[in-house]
Amino acid sequence: MHAYRTHTCAQLRAADVGTSVKLSGWVHRKRDHGNLLFVDLRDHYGITQIVTDSDSPTHAQLDKLRAESVVTITGDVVARSAETVNANLPSGEIEIRAREVVVQSAAHELPMPVFGENEYPEDIRLRYRFLDLRREKVHANIMLRSQVISSLRQRMIGQGFTEFQTPILTASSPEGARDYLVPSRVHPGKFYALPQAPQMFKQLLMVAGFDRYFQIAPCFRDEDARADRSPGEFYQLDFEMSYVTQEDVFAAIEPVLHGVFEEFADWQGKGRKVSALPFQRIPYRESMLKYGNDKPDLRNPIVITDVSEHFRGSGFGRFASMVEGGDVVRAIPAPGTAEKSRKFFDEMNSWAQGEGFPGLGYATQKDGVFGGPIANNHGQEGMKAIADALGIGPNDGIFFSAGKEAQAAKLAGLARTRVAEQLGLIDQNRFEFCWIVDFPMFEYDEDLKKVDFSHNPFSMPQGEMGALETMDPLDILAFQYDIVCNGIELSSGAIRNHKPEIMYKAFEIAGYTQAEVDTNFAGMINAFKCGAPPHGGSAPGVDRIVMLLADEPNIREVITFPMTQKAEDLMMGAPNFATPKQLKELNLKLDVKA
């Protein structure tokens, strides 16, 4: 018999009754029933119940052990009585009558229990992450992550992509976030940068003639944490293709994402639906108008409408004067709120003020009659015209967001989400994908008082050189696109600008000289001068994909060893101070400001 186990803790069934077995695992839970002691033994695969009676020497051994001690148990498989069968366990028809117990590792008092799903403070969970990972839900999330990555990899290979690895120690790149720098010992005073993304390398692979590249790529960015963004590092399904249009990129990656989400849509019996192929395409400006942002949650049925012209010269003086001054008014339907009290609408206004906005106007409606200050001033006919423009019913209220276009759109988008959440309108059992397309190539930077790139400086402008030479820069669109699922941006991508003359012109519009382009992007621009194919790609975030499939609100729940909000690893004690010897080897001296 094997030294540690003949079976795993999820393997034994009724057909194994009468056999002698050996199992190893952690003491998950103990239940003392007087003459009988029951122990749930847990390993990576599952749980098997162990039983011992007070006459057996194994009783005393198991009784004194703390939970999470590691033991090896030899015993006999016996059938449970009908009334004690546990239908929730694969091994629930049997139990092991212990004959011998070997303690492999006795656990001390635990800083947090493993049994149960109670919530514990983040610092405790992350400091003792090795215990947290033993808990059923987190353990299952990490296994889901592994399965998702395996599925992504196989699907990409099936689409004709080849996996390559790109460097980790590299030069700084303009991805928009702060770099993590690594000092060089052999080149004093110089630093490597950890890659924010393999962007330049994957483009250079296309120039090198490899045609279809992918990797599950680690990326490093020194940026603040959010619920859907891990500080420090993350992983993405990075890919690039040669001789492709934007639609070719969509056609390659859509089946991969759709297939993975369909494969795991019923994970843990959730039974969710995935939007059909092809995914919806929504132009950027349309998305900003209808949904108030460029990552819309299409499970939310509410659509925002611009109603500025309805208030031009109207009886509601405040909105009328704002529209005359160039501001906009956006309307957000509130379906089925006729029976809601005034408190519901007032609380929405207070919420908007708490978010840093002046407020959120509203009009109530019951049986086609509008109420509230805006309706009283704008009049029933004027309100009816707005309701017709929104396509709403006689018992639907309306919220209003007014101000400069960007701020009005932002508040309207936030209000759209909050109204839907408050009214229970978001279908939690769907994955709704869409592409956001036609991003503007340039934007006006109010702080710097200049035109700058709005999204990705290496994207091909729609219309190429002709657009750059003849159009207002703020009207030029780019072949840039984001893929969004349930309001979460999974990735940005683009058809790349592979022509040096177009790159020089695009950077010139943003205020960069040819010399600056040659210096800052020497590797890429020199490669393009040696013949570059048209190419494009994207990089869906693996962590966010798993977060959506696991139905977790925070990304740390699907990462094995995440950092805190402050980018600290409490378990390993990172970051930490370097020793004087290390600093000397790197030719570094510290001048740390308090």
UniProtKB/TrEMBL annotation:
Pfam families membership: GAD (PF02938), tRNA-synt_2 (PF00152), tRNA_anti-codon (PF01336)
Keywords: Aminoacyl-tRNA synthetase, ATP-binding, Cytoplasm, Ligase, Nucleotide-binding, Protein biosynthesis
Catalysed reactions, semicolon-separated: tRNA(Asx) + L-aspartate + ATP = L-aspartyl-tRNA(Asx) + AMP + diphosphate
Binding site for L-aspartate: E175, R221, H455, R496
Chief site of localization: cytoplasm
Enzyme Commission designation: 6.1.1.23
Chain spans, region Aspartate: 199-202
Residues binding ATP, per UniProt: R221, D222, E223, E489, G541, V542, D543, R544
Site entry: Important for tRNA non-discrimination: H33
InterPro entries on file: Aa-tRNA-synt_II (IPR004364), aa-tRNA-synth_II (IPR006195), aa-tRNA-synth_II/BPL/LPL (IPR045864), Asp-tRNA-ligase_1 (IPR004524), Asp-tRNA-ligase_1_N (IPR047089), Asp/Asn-tRNA-synth_IIb (IPR002312), AspRS_core (IPR047090), GAD-like_sf (IPR004115)
Residues covered by the Aminoacyl-transfer RNA synthetases class-II family profile domain: 144-575
GO molecular function, one term: aspartate-tRNA ligase activity
Cellular localisation: Cytoplasm
NCBIfam families on file: aspS_bact, PRK00476.1
Family per similarity comment: Belongs to the class-II aminoacyl-tRNA synthetase family. Type 1 subfamily.
Free-text function comment from the UniProt entry: Aspartyl-tRNA synthetase with relaxed tRNA specificity since it is able to aspartylate not only its cognate tRNA(Asp) but also tRNA(Asn). Reaction proceeds in two steps: L-aspartate is first activated by ATP to form Asp-AMP and then transferred to the acceptor end of tRNA(Asp/Asn).
UniProt-listed PANTHER family: ASPARTATE--TRNA LIGASE, MITOCHONDRIAL (PTHR22594:SF5), ASPARTYL/LYSYL-TRNA SYNTHETASE (PTHR22594)
Quaternary structure annotation from Swiss-Prot or TrEMBL: Homodimer.
Protein known as: Aspartate--tRNA(Asp/Asn) ligase
Organism: Sphingomonas immobilis
Originating gene: aspS
